[in-house]
Design goal:
Order of helices and strands: HHEHEHEEEHEHE
CATH topology of one domain: Oxidized Rhodanese, domain 1
Mean pLDDT: 78
Low-confidence stretches: 28-34, 43-64
Helix content: 25-40%
Largest sheet: 5 strands, parallel
Strand order of the largest sheet: 1-6-5-2-4
CATH architecture of one domain: 3-Layer(aba) Sandwich
Strand content: 5-15%
Number of strands: 7
Number of helices: 6
CATH class of one domain: Alpha Beta
CATH superfamily of one domain: Rhodanese-like domain
Structural class: alpha/beta
C-alpha cells in the first residue's frame, strides 16, 4: 500500500510539473496582435491642376469607402460618413444620451440586445450599409460590445468612432440633447 501511495504522489507531482511548464510557456510567449489595417491611399491630384491636391472643405466629393476605412475610424472619417448620411449609433447609457449625443444618432446600448430582444432602433438600419457606433472613446468598451452584437445580427460594415462622443464634441460637430425617438424602454 505504501508503494501505491508513492506512485500516486509521483504521478501527481509529474502532472503538476507538466501543467506548470505549459502555463509558463503560454505566458512567456509574446501576445500576437492583429496587424494594423493598411494606411488609406494618398489623395490624388485634381484634373485641373495636376500635382495639386484639392483641399477637403465641407463635404468631400466622394464618400469614403467603409470597407477601406477599417473597424476603428477617426473623427474626421466619421464626419465624412456623417455628411454622406451614414447612421450613427450611441452605445452609452440613457442619461448620457439625453445629456448630449451626435445629432440624429440612434440610441442602442448592448443591454437592448438582452434575452434575445431586438432593439427597436435596429429596424431602422440596413445590415448591408455602413454604420458608425460610438461611446465615450478611450477605454470605453460599449461601442465594441454593440459592434459585436451588430455583427452577430448580420451587419458587416460597422465602424467605431475611436475618440467617441468627446472627440466629436471637441471637433465642434453637430450634437443634440433629449430622449431617443425610438427605444429607451
Amino acid at each position: 500500500m505504501g508503494f501505491m501511495i508513492m506512485v500516486q504522489r509521483a504521478c501527481t507531482l509529474a502532472l503538476v510539473g507538466i501543467l506548470a511548464g505549459a502555463i509558463h510557456s503560454a505566458l512567456s510567449k509574446p501576445l500576437q496582435l492583429a496587424p494594423k489595417p493598411p494606411a488609406p491611399p494618398e489623395p490624388t491630384p485634381t484634373v485641373a491642376n495636376p500635382g495639386v491636391v484639392s483641399p477637403k472643405a465641407g463635404a468631400s466629393a466622394e464618400t469614403p469607402k467603409p470597407a477601406a476605412l477599417g473597424l476603428d475610424i477617426s473623427v474626421e472619417q466619421a464626419w465624412e460618413l456623417f455628411q454622406s448620411g451614414t447612421p450613427f449609433v450611441d452605445a452609452r447609457a440613457m442619461n448620457e444620451y439625453e445629456e448630449g449625443h451626435i445629432d440624429s444618432a440612434l440610441w442602442m446600448p448592448s443591454e437592448e440586445f438582452m434575452n434575445g430582444h431586438t432593439p427597436e432602433a435596429l429596424q431602422l438600419l440596413d445590415a448591408k450599409a455602413p454604420v458608425v457606433v460610438y461611446c465615450d472613446g478611450g477605454l470605453c468598451d460599449a461601442s465594441k460590445n454593440v459592434v459585436v452584437l451588430l455583427q452577430q445580427a448580420g451587419f458587416t460594415r460597422c465602424h467605431i468612432l475611436t475618440d467617441g462622443y468627446p472627440g466629436w464634441v471637441k471637433a465642434k460637430h453637430p450634437i443634440a440633447t433629449g430622449k431617443p425617438q425610438i427605444g429607451g424602454h
